[in-house]
What does this fold into?
Amino acid sequence: MPGRDGEERRKRDLRIVAARRGGVFTIADAQALGFSRGRRRTLVSAGAWVVLRTGVLTGRRALDLAGRDPRGAHALRCAAALAAMTLPAAAYGLTAACILRLDIPGAPPGRLKVVLPPVRGAGGRTRAGLAVRRAGLPAEHVLEISGVRTTGPARTVVDLARRLSFSDAVLVADSAYRTWGAGVKDQLVDVSGRCSGWPGATGVEPVLAFADVRSESALETRGRLAMHRQDLPPPRTQCWVGETRPEFRADFGWEEQRTIGEADGRVKYTDADVLWKQARREERMHDLGFEVVRFDWQGAGREEELAGRFRRAFDRGRSSPGRGRFFPDPGWWTPGGSTAVPRERDGEPVAWWLHDPDELLELHEFDEPDDGGELDE
It folds into this structure.
């Protein structure tokens, strides 16, 4: 069926265009690929295409995929906003953090944060759904993810450290290491040096000093912040312990106090086999003479109570030498994440918010009604 084959080819080409724009496409894109006005209206009416902004659309499948994570839905909205702009814009602040898949305090902001190049006489503006500021961005501070321009991890962390509370900024900084790799640390030194005279810059250095490339979850960050506020001794993070060799890695460790702290998110302990292995692991910790304190999100929030549990464990641990030791990191293990690389489909990188468990990114055509829908030209 030549007509059907042509439609499928046009859809495939449109998927490629959308992948290059972070999951969105414009009316001009669809028109250039041969989708007539009537056909475009029908696909919108059927729900296969969804209008995000005037003249900018996405596929229903892409919308559903991005909607699984509030940060992904925010990133897709930003991709649409950038596609509608004629000047080279980039996401910044919390919007950039969403696009970079960083942990953020609370929900994504209601307004998209977008920066435009400075123009004489033009300032920032705020309108429904969009907050625009004017500022120069060095090329090395900008990253493009599947066609979506955003401030990179280091610039985003520094920008947020200037505006957020210490605890919230540390949450973002730790996740930047996890998501984008330990190399972000050197970039942060460079960017923070450039921003030394900017508003709020005094808040950057304490955040970078406390942020930990070894932190492996937001719960670990939350627990470390609670320990800091309760004046507990700073722990070793992701420390290796055992008897004659490194046997396992603990989230937190205090060698002098012979105590181990474990941030228990619980999600990872649902499988019976995993639960059994976890029980054996903790049994081995006790066998080696370590005190073990586990905490979850609720426990991390009860900071004084958590600190009391640790201090009692410290007292017990000091009086029980045991056989366990702390070891240096094994040579094969490197702390910190690795730079996030988008997957590819049809030869094009696909942003994380459009990743499917079955690695699908499609603009499905649903059953079509008899009448057409309205679509802004």
